[in-house]
Design brief:
With 411 residues, the chain is an alpha/beta fold. The chain has 2 domains: 144 residues, Aspartate Aminotransferase, domain 1, CATH 3.90.1150; 232 residues, Aspartate Aminotransferase, domain 2 (3-Layer(aba) Sandwich). 42% of the residues lie in helices and 16% in strands. The protein is built from 16 helices and 14 strands. The radius of gyration is 21 Å and the shape is globular. The structure holds pyridoxal-5'-phosphate. The site of pyridoxal-5'-phosphate has 14 residues, from helix 5.
Length: 411
């Protein structure tokens, strides 16, 4: 690997990434590289990451159980705090069991690779999150990528795969587009074909559905989906993740899921923080409706500025710009105007669909959102992007971040 040549290439494509320094917690307003801005790209959707009760729970847990978990839970035992959170999450998700993982990334690679064996086929939506894609890569099975949310194409792929079909994997709320998978149709199709379902609720948990129980619960499919993966790092404000499933599946994952078996358990303060966040979510379900109301306000305000926002129905609102370098310029111009919405470029999103990905928080005020939309409108013009001239979402959905779309069963 010629590292310098690769870095130069990334630079020429306008795809260089660097981290910006944020002072203080991930609240609705932060200080970014020394400049105060409205934060519009954090997944701390409900403001629970810095909620006093969540902080206290994490601090208490550190004093009581220490900072690190010491080993994999299969080696040195599960701690009481992990067991407590697993029980609370299972009750919340109305499933027999949940299994905690170190992160959503680890959960997805561990679940998908465990469920899809050699000689089998896993079906994956073309806009799935990178962690699901990596789970498919790690699995010994073949992967067939179906067109985004296209149930007819999925049906065709399943027909081609015949008896080799093993599992279909999809985001529920898509992380970069904010649209929702047609879960009822996918589950029905999968069941008809004897195929299991794995649904990634990273952006569904705490954000959509009854009391923030996710898109699977919204569709009444809690007992139909084989594994629901959720992260503790986004709406639940901590770190770690879980797989919600029946008791047999939980035993299967505990015995076969390598990212669970061969990785240290999540730290007790994060686990206790997530548990406190979950209790707050159950006590105050209005946080969820406030978040979605804020997303509605944002879409309305952005439309008034001439932006295309069709497609998103959730707290994730993409402003598709198209060109990667142009998206970066809009992002920088917005920061100068006091709004931080990170530009998202390939390979996170398909070529030609670079965007500002807006992530709403329940704690944003309407006035802040109106000002932000106006600032984004001015930033776009300043950067030479005419709002509304972006790639419409439908056209943006032909590419896959890391693989070409498949028309037939292929590796
Ligand atoms: C963020 C994300 C993950 C990974 O979760 P982490 O807990 O951050 O590792 C998985 N799936 C989707 C759709 C995500 O957006």
């Amino acid at each position: 690997m010629d590292i310098q040549a690769r870095l130069d290439e990334i630079d020429e494509l306008g795809l260089t990434r660097r981290m910006r320094l944020v002072s203080g917690p991930q609240g609705p307003r932060v200080v970014l590289d020394g400049k105060p801005v409205l934060l519009l790209c954090s997944n701390n959707y409900l403001g629970l990451a810095d909620h006093p009760r969540v902080r206290e729970a994490a601090a208490d847990a550190a004093m009581r159980w220490g900072v690190g978990a010491g080993a994999s839970r299969l080696v040195s035992g599960t701690m009481t705090v992990h067991r407590r959170l697993e029980d609370a999450l299972a009750a919340f998700k109305d499933r027999e069991a949940t299994v905690l993982y170190g992160s959503g990334y680890l959960a997805n690679i561990g679940v998908v690779s465990a469920l899809a064996g050699r000689g089998e086929v896993v079906f994956s939506d073309e806009l799935n999150h990178a962690s699901l894609i990596d789970g498919c890569r790690l699995a010994r099975a073949e992967t067939v990528v179906y067109r985004h949310n296209d149930v007819e194409h999925l049906a065709w792929c399943m027909q081609q795969a015949g008896r080799r079909g093993s599992v279909v994997v999809t985001d529920s709320v898509f992380s970069m587009d904010g649209d929702v998978a047609p879960l009822a149709e996918i589950v029905e199709l999968a069941q008809r074909n004897g195929v299991r379902t794995v649904v990634d609720e990273a952006h569904g948990t705490g954000c959509v559905g009854p009391g923030g129980r996710g898109a699977v619960a919204d569709a009444g499919l809690e007992h139909e989906v084989d594994v629901v993966v959720g992260t503790l790092g986004k709406a639940l404000g901590a770190y770690g993740a879980f797989a919600a499933c029946d008791a047999q599946m939980a035993r299967f994952l505990t015995n076969t899921s390598r990212s669970l078996i061969f990785s240290t358990a999540p730290p007790p303060p994060a686990v206790a923080g997530a548990l406190a966040a979950l209790e707050l979510l159950i006590e105050q379900p209005r946080m969820v409706s406030k978040l979605q109301a804020n997303a509605d306000v944002m879409r309305t305000e952005l439309a008034a500025e001439g932006f295309e926002v069709a497609g998103s129905t959730t707290q994730i609102v993409p402003l598709i710009v198209g060109d990667a370098a142009l998206a970066m310029r809009v992002c920088e111009a917005a920061i100068e105007r006091g709004v931080f919405a990170q530009a998202i470029r390939p390979p996170t999103v398909p070529e030609g669909t670079s965007r500002l990905r807006l992530a709403l928080m329940a704690s944003h005020t309407k006035a802040e959102l109106r000002e932000a939309a106006q600032a984004l409108g001015r930033a776009a013009l300043h950067a030479g992007f005419r709002p509304g001239a972006g790639v419409p979402l439908a056209a943006a959905q032909n590419g896959n971040p890391t693989r070409p779309p498949f028309d037939s069963v292929a590796a």
